[in-house]
Design a protein that fits this description.
Layout (H helix, E strand, L loop, with lengths): L2 E3 L40 E6 L4 E6 L4 E7 L4 E6 L5 E6 L4 E6 L5 E6 L6 E6 L5 E5 L4 E6 L7 E6 L5 E6 L5 E6 L4 E6 L7 E4 L4 E6 L6 E5 L4 E5 L6 E6 L4 E6 L5 E6 L4 E6 L4 E7 L6 H4 L1 E6 L5 E6 L4 E6 L5 E6 L4 E7 L12
Pfam families: YNCE
Organism: Parerythrobacter jejuensis
Protein name: Beta-propeller fold lactonase family protein
């Protein structure tokens, strides 16, 4: 049996040594805070950041560029995701066993969903269907949380059986999910509805970045230990093509338009841009650059809803860089809390990308 329903999960307060990319994070640079630059075109949009070094959650107003709220979150918060209706943001408590949910308006705490002893949830998706999906490294599994805002959400666990199930992607119909399992060096397909045994395939060295194309036709994975990216068949996990990326590509994100993917190359201080039609590396975008790669310690990357901007968490300097995709220029840097890592964006419905037929 690969899954089971938890009707009454045990509540546990656990202390874990969180998985680290290196032995320790680089010290933040002795830099003045970046200037607050306004952008009226981004009215109503907000950026949420988990600050894993101080166990807090930040909200940045993207119109003003100012951090407008910071609250206590949970132990070692990492990935986060905004609800489809924009009312809530969920946080994976990597140093514990729960998912914490906050109001996006004022970051007031709403509820906590326990996943069981030693869960260490990391990767997190609040799906368009309204359900939450999370990896649980400490249990070699992933979770499907059905109707998370209900008084008693349905909590289902699925074994991956692999070490370091870290990030995940979920199919549009919610029938399958895929995890990247860093220590095992595998990608795993989990069938959420049929409950068939999971399928795992070796994929480079330390695969960590993962994303599904908007049409669901391809799964892309980056392997940080071998500086590679792979296109996979989502059903069979057969490798269709591979290419070299920049150094240490620990995240991969696909543009909402579905035309390109980017990897966050920590050791280069920049991004690799992959043309998804040709499967070739089309260009690189410098954010901090190799001279500042260790100083800025660039980690998570996400796209704006319209695909015009990229946001990169610079954990070492407690900042987030806003990058213009077309020019590659760093437009602004936002001050956040200590070791800012996970990122999520709230954008009004009017700013979301529409299908233009391209």
């Amino acid at each position: 049996m690969n899954s089971f329903r938890i009707s009454a999960p045990a509540i546990a307060t656990l202390a874990f040594a969180p998985f680290a990319l290196f032995a320790c994070s680089p010290a933040a640079a002795d830099l003045p805070p970046p200037p607050v630059v306004a952008n009226a075109d981004m009215a109503g949009q907000a950026l949420f950041v988990t600050n894993k070094g101080e166990d807090t959650l930040s909200k940045v107003d993207l119109a003003t560029g100012a951090e407008v709220k910071r609250v206590d979150s949970c132990t070692t918060p990492h990935e986060l995701s905004v609800s489809p209706d924009g009312q809530y943001v969920a946080v994976g408590c990597y140093g514990g066993s729960s998912l914490s949910i906050f109001n996006t308006a004022d970051l007031s705490a709403v509820k906590s969903i326990e996943l069981g002893d030693g869960a260490r949830p990391h990767g997190l998706v609040w799906h368009a269907n309204g359900d939450l999906y999370a990896t649980a490294e400490g249990r070699k599994s992933m979770f499907w949380v059905e109707d998370p805002m209900a008084n008693e959400p349905g909590v289902f666990e699925y074994a991956t059986g692999k070490d370091g199930s870290h990030m995940l992607a979920v199919a549009e119909n919610g029938n399958q999910a895929w995890t990247v399992d860093m220590q095992s060096g595998t990608v795993t397909r989990v069938d959420l509805k049929t409950r068939r045994a999971p399928l795992s395939v070796a994929m480079g060295s330390e695969p960590e970045g993962i994303a599904l194309t908007p049409d669901g036709s391809a799964l892309w994975v980056s392997a940080r230990g071998s500086n590679e990216a792979f296109e996979l068949d989502p059903a069979t996990l057969e490798v269709r093509q591979r290419l070299d990326t920049g150094r240490f590509p620990l995240r991969l994100a696909i543009r909402p338009q579905g035309d390109v993917a980017i990897t966050s190359d920590l050791q280069d201080g920049g991004l690799s841009v992959i043309d998804l039609e040709s499967g070739e590396l089309s260009r690189s975008i410098a954010i901090g650059g190799p001279d500042q790669a260790e100083q800025r310690f660039q980690v998570t990357i996400i796209w704006s809803a319209d695909g015009e901007r990229i946001y990169a968490a610079e954990t070492g300097t407690n900042t987030v860089a806003e990058v213009d995709y077309a020019s590659g220029e760093v437009l602004r840097r936002f001050s956040v809390g200590e070791d800012g890592d996970g990122l999520a964006i709230l954008a009004p419905a009017s700013t979301e990308t529409e299908d233009d037929g391209e």
